[in-house]
Amino acid sequence: MRVVSKVVLGLISAAVSFSAVAMDPRFKDSDGDLVADTPTNSADWIDPPVLVFAYTPVEDPAVYAKVWEEFVDHLATMTGKKVQFFPVQSNAAQLEAMRAGRLHVAGFNTGSNPIAVNCAGFVPFAMMASKDNAFGYEMEIITFPGSGISKVEDIKGKKMAFTSETSNSGFKAPSALLKDKFKMEAGKDFEAVFSGKHDNSILGVANQDYPAAAIANSVKQRMIARDAVKPEQIEVIYKSETFPTTGYGHVYNLKPELAQKVKDAFFSFDWEGTGLQNEFTKSQPPQEKFMPITYKEHWSVVRDIDRAMGVTYACK
């Protein structure tokens, strides 16, 4: 079940100006599902000999290439295509790759989904979940023991790390929270720095490079489980309500038969004994399968936060 925090609701009701979401003119949404339609002209479909797949940016892409290895092989078998894992270095690079036609199947992080949908033609259809369909993560504001920060207000006058401006838990949600609930703004009450990735922010706090950071706790849980950081290196001073996790999907103009095979690959994948099972069942709730989702329903809370902050999805 999706929960919208009182802070978010308050921001929504208080928002006085917001430019309407504008999907890139290249795309059409005739059925109102908020994602780009498959082109009606078959000449506009793409059927690449090599499918390129990318997972959302992480600290060490090589680690995740191994994690996704069995799934990549399964995707290749199901589609009859060679599949290449693309280790993206940033959210911007991932978005540009799909927008330019170089990326066909992807997992975009929570906050990047609206931009990917509206600017790159991303069509999300799946999300990781537990066997009983529990899903999601929380945004946490973390610090390290001895930092002098024991509550959010103590961040005043100090540095706080965010991941990137497209990230939900790494920037948008904490910025909304800090402004609405704690009356704190970057540049006025604290110095904002950008690490680029949740992994970088978590390691930065654990190694005492950043006094505080806003992160997705699902990433933190996985890093602790593989001993990349130790629990005693981090203290949590704020935890949000639950948000959806990474959305998985394909670019809008894949040949329909190929797009269906991509979907079938996600929902038929057997997690038992795989790198995905080893890595993602460490989260809480455990992520043990791919669950069908719709962008219109499951990302409504993220779009609400964007509206409250005056965020638009203008495509450059």
From TrEMBL:
- Note whether Membrane occurs among the keywords: no
Q: Which Pfam families match?
A: Phosphonate-bd (PF12974)
UniProt xrefs under InterPro entries: PhnD
Identify its protein family: Belongs to the phosphate/phosphite/phosphonate binding protein family.
Source domain of life: Bacteria
Where is the secretion signal located?
A: 1-22
Q: Which UniProt keywords apply?
A: Signal
Which GO CC terms are listed, alphabetically?
ATP-binding cassette (ABC) transporter complex
Give me any GO biological process, just one: transmembrane transport
Q: What is this protein called?
A: Phosphate/phosphite/phosphonate ABC transporter substrate-binding protein
